[in-house]
Amino acid sequence: MIYYRIEKEKKGFRLCEPKRNPDYNRKTESVFAQCNGYLGVRASFETKQLDESRGTFVGGFYHRAGNHEVTELVNCPDVTEFRIRVNGEPVHLDSGKLTLYERSLRTRTGELVSQVGFLNGICIKTRRFSSMDNKKLFCHQLSITVKNGGILELSTGINGQMTNSGVSHFDRMEARVFEKFRMPCSDGQETGTPFYLECGCDDGQTLKIMSLCCRDQHEVKEWDGKKQTMGLPGKKAAFHLERRSIYEDVKTELLPGQTWTLCKYTLYDTDGLELEEMAAILKEAEAAGYGELYRRHQEVFDGYWDMAAIEIEGAAEEEAGVMEFAQYHLAGMVPWDRSSYSVGAKGLTGEGYKGHVFWDTEIFIMPFFTLMFPEVSRNLLLYRYHRLEGARQKAEEYGYSGAMYPWESAVAGGEETPLWAAIDIHTGTAAKVWSGIKEHHVTADIIYALLNYYELTGDKTFMEQYGYQMILETAVFWSSRAVWNEEKGQLEIRDVIGPDEYTEHVDNNAYTNYLAHENVKAARKILASWNGELARQYRRDGWEKAFDHFLNHLYLPKPGPDHIIPQDDTFLGKPKLPDIEKYRTAHERQTILKDYSRSQVIGMQVLKQADVVMLLELLPGRFDHQTVKNNVTFYEALTLHDSSLSYCAHAEADAVIGEPDMAVDFFEKAMEIDLDKGYKDSAAGIHAASLGGIINCVLKGFAGIRVNDGHLECCPHLPKKWKSIRFSVMDHGQRKRVAITKDSEGGTEVRMEETGE
Ligand code: BGC
Fold first, then answer.
1. Res. 190 pLDDT band, cuts 50 70 90
2. Is the pLDDT of residue 236 over 80?
3. What is the pLDDT of residues 35-56, one digit of tens each?
4. What atom of ligand 1 comes closest to residue 643's alpha carbon?
5. How far, CA to CA in Å, does 75 sit from each of 107, 167, 305?
6. Is the CB of 434 under 6 A from ligand 1?
7. Which atom of ligand 1 is the closest one to the Cα of 356?
8. How far does residue 25's CA lie from ligand 1's centre (Å)?
9. What is the C-alpha separation between 712 and 75, in angstroms, rounded?
10. Which pLDDT value is given to residue 226?
């Protein structure tokens, strides 16, 4: 069940916290985060709470704090906290008696709007967003009203004491205030004074943060029927430093019922902006005001929705709201205008998975962008291209040739997977994480996404400059990875982990073998057709022969008489987990690991997540309908869905096999991944892949959109209640409108029309 109330707005939806419940603080901080693809700010309340996990993340800003640490996305200095006292008494949600508590996230813009009233007559309203118009800019507005008036003391600043769960990443911090950038405003009042924190890491990286607090010169608000001028009338700025932090302090008298409003604009920069440039941007923001800045932000976001909106006749309001929520976060997690970083498993909303990039990006998140915003997919692919060297080194380290991409990636391109994870219940020691060593399918996944991008865009220039090299070098890796089985006269890929991480050290994982085959097949095609200087420089003698050998001899697990494709060589011979339903129906994930050790789990027929089902989904034409159907049903019954990537995959698979009722069931579960009542879920960040998977299920599952030989086609299986679905796609640079409508006889009519855009 979805925890948040979903309300329809004039445009889009609003997700609302149903009531104040501090247990949900951390979850809501992730779910309601303000993200624009460069900046991600968790939705912690303005005043500090007992249980909170404040966090701000900047795309691509990773650091490794020591030899025994892994590289992680840095939790950057915070600007969202306000320390407030009225008549000397601190204002806190935890201790104050509340008469009003409303917090909501607007799906169309990601604006967080809060309103909190206290029994003692204090009311605080806030709004905030990470600007899509200037992605380095975070805008925050706070209004406070005190019914009986009083002395207000407020401090807000740039707090560099933030850590990643206790680990500090900065070894240098310098705070400054810039009186020289202060100017009188047109009405003679004083304007804000920029203040600044420069944070340096030991690897030479610098993060610059500049804030400016000001009154809003434009807004005149009504309060109790009286017009009130907002702002900090006649205030003189005062600042103080704390260790690694700088604060602006305000003290003012509030008249009874007067609303006092402060705007705080902050720039986060990792590109080396000059201080003058930063101050000028903030001064311009001050002159424009929150309302105008929001209008500009919304205008850019409107452009996104113009393309991204999916209109469904017959969808429940909640369903439509969650889809928009997913699309809001998708927009907020990707690099729109740079290729220096990719998408972490939690986007920019939390510390979970250390901000690392997994196959989640290429297989779950990219399909939506390739269909609607191929320029983003291009950035994501370039991120991988620029990390080919890391992939070459990883291959070499393990004794292979070519390029093997890391399972978890950050900046440098090397393997970032931590070596140790949760405690094994039997040994009492941390269990070794084998994914970074054995989960090799990510290499083929990247190439799968690349081929998909090419099929839909026809971007030959990209392929010539970058794509062909990626395909060829990864194919070289697969050729070196396969070993000859003398007895069977076939090539095999041994000792891997497939997508299902409840099996380890298996031979011939079907998913891995088939996708590796696709990877090498594409490479072979390139060799036959790629000409020109770069091609001549690049190709090596022996590749053709090696690729042909691989393609002709790689063992591809075939369906048995019951149509079941063996997940790997040993899976079907393992014992079943006797009490599987207990774990399938548990409210928490991964409860099996509380009863069984990891080595016991990997010895049984039990899946963490979709595996063969993913293969069927990615290569739709490869298997006949009966095979697809039998495998989807067979493997689902053995799957615990202990990964957030699983429900969306099963939803899509059921839609494709024409079982929309079952698909809807899984679709609903996927929609709950970040939004259900489990308050621990999503505390460390939203589940980026699942959000992508929800949209995949709608577009590739229910609407049945596929690329076949470079052509888009639709084979829809709409849920019973849906009457029609409309959306746009980009096909070879042309925008097309797709309209799928059910007719009165239960059939569907598909129209795909060029829009001329
Ligand atoms: C899943 C992986 C996934 C990772 C990051 C793991 O629990 O098993 O498939 O890539 O989470 O989302």
1. low
2. no
3. 999 999 999 999 999 999 999 9
4. 7
5. 24, 9, 29
6. no
7. 5
8. 24
9. 42
10. 52
Residue nearest to atom 6 of ligand 1 (CA): 643
Block residue for tokens 């701000």? 56
Cα of 352 vs centre of ligand 1, distance in Å, is 11
Are 557 and 491 within 8 A, CB to CB?
no
pLDDT of residue 677: 93
How far away, in angstroms, is 715 Cα from ligand 1 center? 29
Beta strands in 220-310 (DSSP E): 220-223, 226-229, 238-242, 245-254, 259-269
CA 320 to chain centre: 19
643 CB near ligand 1 (under 6 Å): yes
- Residue 228 three-state SS: strand
Q: What is the mean pLDDT of residues 165-190?
A: 78
> Any idea which residues carry the catalytic annotation?
501
Indicate the pLDDT class of residue 183, thresholds 50, 70 and 90: low
Residue 359 in contact with ligand 1 by CB distance below 6 A = yes
- Mean pLDDT score, 366-383: 98
Ligand 1 pocket member 353 (CB < 6 A) = yes
Kindly indicate the confidence band of residue 286, based on its pLDDT and cuts at 50, 70 and 90. Answer: very high
Name the percent of the chain lying above pLDDT 70. Answer: 96
Whole-number average pLDDT of the chain: 94
- In this prediction, residue 423 carries a pLDDT of 81
Query: Is residue 252 pLDDT above 90, yes or no?
Result: no
Residue 33 alpha carbon to ligand 1 centre in Å: 21
Structure tokens at 467: 């794509």
Residue whose C-alpha is closest to residue 328's, from 701, 54, 675, 681: 675
**Residue-level pLDDT at 235:** 54
Element (H, E) at 430: strand 430-432
The pLDDT tens digits of the residues spanning 440-490 come to 999 999 999 999 999 999 999 999 999 999 999 999 999 999 999 999 999
Ligand 1 pocket residue status of 501, Cβ below 6 Å: yes
Ligand 1 probe mutation, 360, 446, 502, 642, most atoms within 8 A of CB: 360
Residue nearest atom 12 of ligand 1, based on CA coordinates: 345
Going 43 to 48 to 51 to 53, the CA torsion angle's sign is positive
CA distance 563 to 623: 10
Q: Which residues of 296-309 are buried (b: 16+ CB within 10 A; e: fewer)?
A: bbbebbeebbeebb
In sequence order, the 6+-apart residues with CB closer than 8 A to the CB of 511 are 441, 498, 499, 567, 611, 612, 614, 615
**H/E element, 114:** strand 112-118
Distance, in Å, from the CA atom of 346 to the CA atom of 354, rounded to the nearest integer, reads 9
Contacts of 552 (CB under 8 A, 6+ apart): none
Q: How confident is the model at residue 189 (pLDDT cuts 50, 70, 90)?
A: low
* Per-residue model confidence (pLDDT) at position 234: 47
User: Once rounded to an integer, what is the mean pLDDT over residues 277-283?
Assistant: 95
Question: How far, in Å, is the centroid of ligand 1 from the Cα of 691?
Answer: 13
C-alpha 365 – ligand 1 centre gap (Å): 13
Would you say the CB of residue 286 lies under 6 angstroms from ligand 1? no
Closest C-alpha to ligand 1, atom 1? 643
Atom of ligand 1 nearest to the CA of 501: 8
Q: Is the Cβ atom of 360 under 6 angstroms away from ligand 1?
A: yes
Residue found under tokens 């009542």 = 677
Q: Of ligand 1's atoms, which has the minimum distance to the CA of residue 358? A: 10
Q: Is residue 565 predicted with pLDDT exceeding 80?
A: yes
- Cα(643) to centroid(ligand 1), Å: 6
